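Appendix C: a fully annotated inverse folding record. The material below is reproduced so that readers can follow the format used throughout the book. The structure is listed first as tokens, followed by the designed sequence.
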């Protein structure tokens, strides 16, 4: 164990890296508490940032927090520290998602160099809602991304042509269902930032990150503007054959969702280092009736948690983050 508690600046740097993770609508549903005497950094869910309509069971909230947890592990390794992580450590406290004990490296247990390698990608990774080149991914890149998911106990599947068409149809079906559901836009309206609000926002999706409207193409890109007017946005054609990947775990429950989030972020950071642009959609997965239809048709097993769109193109702008002082308590 570390001989003395970490200084506040180091802890703040670790948490700042953690909060660069993606989360549904950039709601940032996490809080951190560092207990200095125990060298323990606690990750808690923030229920005030839950989305009752889009995410009633909290699956997306856990995935976002899992992604933040992975960034924390990467930043810890980069700081030449060792992290021992315990998921859901207190059954009586379901909002306590993880406890991370930080310690100095030892000769027989150095900091994780493979995690540290990913550190530069934390700040480079952004969600892109722009068109990607209509070209395939190299086999070696696919293999690296599949391995990244496997290292975190998840599976990344690149669907074949028929399966990918099915996924795209399900996304379209989800969009159609939203149009018929009066409450479908509640969460989107709450977490999008337009006009002057976009310039000062510390959370949510600001209008400058919406990307252009899709004039043509089949890329699954959620239009956060809806029927609202966004200045200087423009329209353009997206790729007709988007390169999709499906992230899944065997089980379904809070621990699986946290593992999925860690796997998702590991894949995204690997993709970023491979010069890929990335975007995410869970639109077809927000309806429990649609989720089983996204599974691999060959096996019919597993729980799909995210649809990734990967390709070569603009990475998109950075989206705002809350100040560390607002999400970190040190005692």
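Designed amino acids, in order:
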């Amino acid at each position: 164990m570390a001989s003395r508690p970490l200084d506040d600046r180091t802890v703040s740097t670790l948490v700042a890296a953690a909060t660069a993770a993606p989360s549904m609508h950039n709601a940032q549903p996490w809080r951190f508490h560092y207990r200095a005497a125990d060298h323990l950094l606690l990750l808690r869910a923030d229920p005030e940032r839950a989305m009752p309509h889009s995410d009633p069971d909290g699956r997306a909230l856990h995935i976002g927090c899992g992604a933040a947890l992975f960034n924390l592990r990467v930043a810890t390794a980069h700081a030449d520290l060792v992290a021992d992580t315990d998921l859901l450590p207190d059954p009586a406290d379901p909002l306590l998602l993880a406890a991370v004990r930080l310690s100095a490296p030892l000769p027989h247990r150095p900091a994780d160099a493979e995690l540290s390698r990913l550190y530069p990608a934390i700040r480079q990774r952004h969600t892109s809602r722009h068109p990607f080149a209509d070209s395939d991914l190299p086999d070696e890149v696919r293999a690296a991304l599949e391995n990244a998911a496997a290292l975190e106990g998840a599976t990344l599947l690149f669907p074949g042509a028929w399966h990918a068409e099915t996924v795209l149809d399900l996304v379209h079906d989800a969009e159609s269902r939203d149009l018929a559901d009066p409450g479908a836009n509640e969460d989107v309206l709450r977490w999008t930032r337009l006009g002057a609000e976009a310039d000062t926002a510390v959370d949510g999706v600001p209008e400058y990150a919406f990307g252009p409207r899709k004039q043509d193409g089949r890329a699954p890109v959620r239009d956060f503007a809806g029927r609202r007017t966004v200045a200087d946005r423009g329209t353009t054609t997206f790729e007709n054959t988007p390169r999709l990947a499906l992230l899944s775990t065997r089980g379904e429950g809070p621990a699986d969702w946290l593992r999925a989030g860690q796997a998702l972020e590991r894949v995204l950071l690997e993709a970023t280092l491979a010069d890929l642009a990335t975007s995410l959609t869970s639109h077809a997965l927000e309806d429990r009736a649609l989720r089983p239809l996204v599974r691999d048709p060959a096996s019919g097993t597993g729980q799909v948690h995210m649809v990734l769109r990967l390709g070569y193109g603009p990475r998109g702008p950075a989206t705002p983050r809350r100040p560390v002082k607002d999400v970190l308590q040190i005692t």
